[in-house]
Design goal:
This protein is an alpha/beta fold. The protein folds into 2 domains: 311 residues, Alpha-Beta Horseshoe (pyruvate-formate lyase- activating enzyme), CATH 3.80.30.20; 56 residues, no CATH class. It contains 15 helices and 10 strands. β7, α9 and β8 form a beta-alpha-beta unit. α1 runs parallel beside α4 and α2 runs antiparallel to α3. It binds iron/sulfur cluster.
């Protein structure tokens, strides 16, 4: 192996963090920082017991080098058309062949997924510092010049602190998309959940990312205002997004994990969760009130009720509203049937309810498990916990 730099004393081999956006499922995950420097959002259980740290640039580069070396080996084996490449490589991993099995597995997965994109972990890579991150991204592009997309999560408050020129330099180096957790455009909601960003900060950060020439993906969390702030959450979020006009608006419906601080508020009654019907009304209000945006709306998270609630604004607005209206106009029993079928993975869109075999399967599941209108919410709550 040929390495570009000396690793730190604490280097313990190739690392990956716990999460990535659903749209980065095919990407190589390169861990730049560990956990979340903010870590206070009350709805988020992901890093709560874990300390934040920046990884030394040399260690991140070593991770990149390891994947590079293994990728070359895998490509060579593939070019030789060796039979059962995956089986052979897995055997090699188990026999102690590769020096770093985690890096080898990452390289293999990435190869099998086309090796086109990279996602920088964990919660907010920009906290690393512009020059360090430019160094890392440049190294990444040197090793993998064909990669089309390099992306990361970034917090609006951190983006606000990065100089415009540094953001542009990061874009030039190859970082071409940021995923921002906007969650809400309502200051009341943002304060309540301790997001650490205001609506104004979100808008300014979003515009800054776009000005730097990066693609911008804004995550929105239906249900985050609870019953009390549901309408305000929808209207203010629509207004913030209308000011930003991001490339992507991605829905990720709230599900309160028992490990999240918000769970305590929920148990005490300080936070009242919206029903699925309320959330659908909220999403309707949000989409209806988007003004002047050309964003692509995405619903690629398992927690969302409708996988097909996707489209380009403004031309697909009517079609997306029609999906929500169709659900809202259903009888409560039919809504329950869809909700149960969706959460059990039988349905992904309302169109699936025209498939009588699937409908019958969900009906039988409900009957055999004694699921009624009254018990549906508790059952779905239980299932949702397994998703988060
Ligand atoms: S910034 Fe992101 S990762 Fe950090 S606590 Fe908030 S939601 Fe979780």
């Amino acid at each position: 192996m040929t390495y570009t730099s000396q690793v730190s004393e604490g280097y313990q081999g190739f690392e990956q963090g716990p999460i990535r956006p659903p749209s980065e499922a095919q990407s190589l995950l390169i861990r730049v920082t560990r956990n979340c420097a903010w870590n206070r959002c009350t709805f988020c259980p992901v890093y709560k017991a874990l300390a934040f740290s920046k990884r030394p640039v040399a260690d991140v580069k070593r991770d990149i080098d390891l994947v590079y070396e293994y990728l070359l080996e895998i490509q060579q084996a593939h070019d030789m058309q060796s039979a059962g490449i995956r089986r052979e490589m897995t055997r090699l991993a188990k026999s102690g062949g590769p020096m770093d099995p985690a890096a080898f597995e990452a390289a293999m997965q990435w190869f099998l997924n086309g090796a086109n994109s990279v996602f920088l972990q964990d919660a907010d890579s920009l906290v690393t510092g512009a020059s360090e991150l430019i160094d890392i991204v440049s190294h990444l592009k040197t090793r993998f010049p064909w990669v089309e997309r390099v992306t990361s999560y970034a917090r609006s408050s951190t983006i606000g602190k990065v100089a415009e020129d540094d953001l542009k330099a990061l874009r030039t180096a190859g970082l071409n998309r940021l995923h921002v957790g906007l969650e809400s455009g309502s200051d009341k909601v943002l304060r309540m959940v301790r997001k650490g960003s205001s609506k104004e900060m979100h808008v300014k950060a979003g515009l800054k990312v776009k000005k730097a020439g990066m693609e911008l993906s804004e995550y929105v969390m239906p249900g985050l205002g609870g019953i009390g702030l549901s309408t305000e959450h929808a209207l203010e979020t629509a207004d913030a997004l209308s000011q930003i006009d991001p490339d992507f608006i991605r829905f990720r419906t709230l599900a309160v994990s028992e490990r999240a601080p918000l769970h305590v508020d929920r148990v005490s009654g300080r936070f009242q969760t919206c029903s699925d019907v309320m959330i659908v009304k909220e999403m309707r209000t949000l989409i209806e009130n988007l003004r002047g945006v050309s964003s692509a709306i995405k619903s690629d998270h398992i927690l969302n009720l409708f996988e097909d609630l996707e489209g380009r604004m403004p031309q697909d607005k009517g079609r997306m509203l029609a999906i929500l209206d169709e659900f809202l106009e259903m009888e409560p029993e039919k809504q329950d049937l869809y909700r149960v079928g969706r959460r059990l993975g039988v349905f992904s869109s309302l169109g699936d309810m025209r498939d009588l075999e699937r409908v019958s399967r969900v009906q039988q599941l409900c009957e055999s498990n004694g699921i009624t209108h009254e018990s549906t919410d508790a059952l779905l709550e239980h299932i949702m916990q397994t998703f988060i």
